[in-house]
Amino acid sequence: MIRRAIDGGVARMLTIGVDVLSSRRAIELAEQYAEVYAAVGVHPNDCADFDAAMLQEVRSLAQQPKVIAIGEIGLDYYWHKVDHGVQARAFQAQLELAAELRKPVIVHSREAAADTIGMLENFTRHSSLVTGTLHSYFDDLTIMQRAFAIGFCCGVTGPITFKKSDRERDIIRQAPLDRLLIETDAPFLTPVPHRGQRNEPAYVRHVAETIAQVQELTVEVVAQQTTLNANQLLGW
Description:
By secondary structure, the chain is α/β, with parallel strands linked by helices. The protein has two domains: 1-104, Metal-dependent hydrolases (TIM Barrel, Alpha-Beta Barrel); 131-236, TIM Barrel. 45% of the residues lie in helices and 15% in strands. The protein has nine helices and seven strands; from the N terminus they run αβαβαβαβαβαβαβαα. It has a seven-stranded parallel sheet. Helix 2 (20-32) packs parallel to helix 3 (52-62) and helix 7 (166-173) packs across helix 8 (204-215). The model has no long low-confidence stretch (mean pLDDT 97).
């Protein structure tokens, strides 16, 4: 899968933890392949037992050489797996960790856009040390503009290629290209024409092609700019 991505023009990949175990596995994978980097963190749907000890484990993992971000962290009100207050405390603690270590954050937000952007605005108001991306972004234009105003990027994934995603394409059409990243959310959200199959990094090309179509640009321009955006955000 990594070879297919490289052969398809993908120079670097970020694999992202959702709990301590998957964060460790992300680091192991990154250490095996020069093109792969890792993010470590505890996802809102996996933070029910989040405590100081777990935070310390994430802190320790985050200091490994190929770890370049804290994530996936944030808020999820869709699945009702973890109390909202517990999610918020875990999110806040990991934002503080990111500021401490000066690493960007990969933010998950599902049906929690107002609270997510509110927490990020409050945090960045007091700390200029944290930036990041709203991963797999498909909330409204206003939330996106608020994210851009605090220096965040937004990640674009496979659903932008879906036939019924006119609303999402319209939002991306209005977004400045220098604030967009392309990503997979693999193995989920597989873009057309591979929808229904397992997603993988090589398929970000289809996301880039759709961004190019809606912004009336060439794929090469989109590839170059989103690569530059990732380089600036992640420092890889």
